[in-house]
């Protein structure tokens, strides 16, 4: 995860697999909504809001964050991990405690 | 001359106010301490409901808002607006009986409600637990993406000349000789205005208190869970009837953890093919961090109605602060002692649904046009609010 990724700005590159987002979609959202923070961009595009919880798309996002023209968007606060859990497991947790 | 209006708060309410005002020709500045929609309006569901409103003023206001929203959906760019209707499902026979009475009252008031007996509810909602005795359906209810809706309103307001200032907190509403003069920002700048609309959600009392205007708005925290993309459990929204039981002055029967955190089932499929589960109600809690006990109580409640969700995967949870008022109606009002001061806050669990009618009414009050609905029940100094004493709430 720590290795630096170079992401070419190419329309076909998928930046989030869970939400089927390409660079194009991100650029489009940037132009349309002119978000002032990454949280806002994330909320309109659902970037990083799929099941991977950022594990797959986080490095690409980091590359996006580091672009000079995006400096004003700041860095993205990483949400405390909520490990995907099935509802059945969730309901039973703590029952035998 | 067009009045200079400052709207404090770019949640769904302030954004709707900015939209209607700038469209009507006012010169509007919309200010938020965070981003557009960064308060409660991005931590909520997108249900636009008449199904849970008391017949009378409440339901008429909700229906008027639905009508206006329907118009907005045809003029604004898309915001995932759909009208699948909504269902309320009953946990037990006592609730089924109360639901029967409720539907009767609503039908008398001319609203599109239907009672669904055991056979009917299970044919409408095949995923439901087999022991659910009854339910009801409201045909006019709709749903949307709340953050997108808020942003669309702001975009459209901008096209009508609205100025938007984000990441700028208002520290003070400046009043001079009984009239609003403007607002002071955190960096000391003063912006002048003829009218200031306070649409700061749960934070509104902090801006109003220094002016001697006391409005008993309090946070009522609510949690939501988000599922992974996967099979849905039906396309329509489903809520449980139980949380309406208090309106009938009857005790609700539910597990202890559900009662403690005010948990009632809300199932909302989204356009991104995942679903949201809610929700909880905790009065007076300011902390927006999700709490595990509450998340679990919501999960268990969902399983009671949807046993097939055992395998469904949850990926996230979040919580927001509903702006609660003692009589569950918002404050949409001028303040007679301070010319130019308008309040639009306190929409509790209905701000998304009531944003359109609120924005329209604020515009009417500001420009002194005939109001779209009777504004009197929404006055800030109505007896239910002025007589309310802290501690008297039951949550
Ligand atoms: C779990 C949950 C589920 C919900 N589900 C639904 C639903 O299905 N349907 C529905 O209709 N409603 C629902 N609601 C309720 C709805 O979210 C709220 O009623 C609505 O978002 C309130 O909007 P608002 O604009 O008044 O407040 P907010 O969205 O909180 O906006 C207020 C804004 O004011 C800004 N602000 C505050 N103080 C200042 C200051 N001093 N200077 C500058 N800016 C300031 C804040 O940053 C914020 O952006 C739900 C709520 C929750 C918590
Ligand atoms: S790749 Fe889907 S959330 Fe990141």
TrEMBL record, chain B:
Record-level GO cellular component terms: cytoplasm
Top-level division of the source organism's lineage: Bacteria
Keyword field: Oxidoreductase
Annotated ranges, domain FAD dependent oxidoreductase: 5-365
GO molecular function annotations of the record: oxidoreductase activity
Name this polypeptide is given: Glycine oxidase
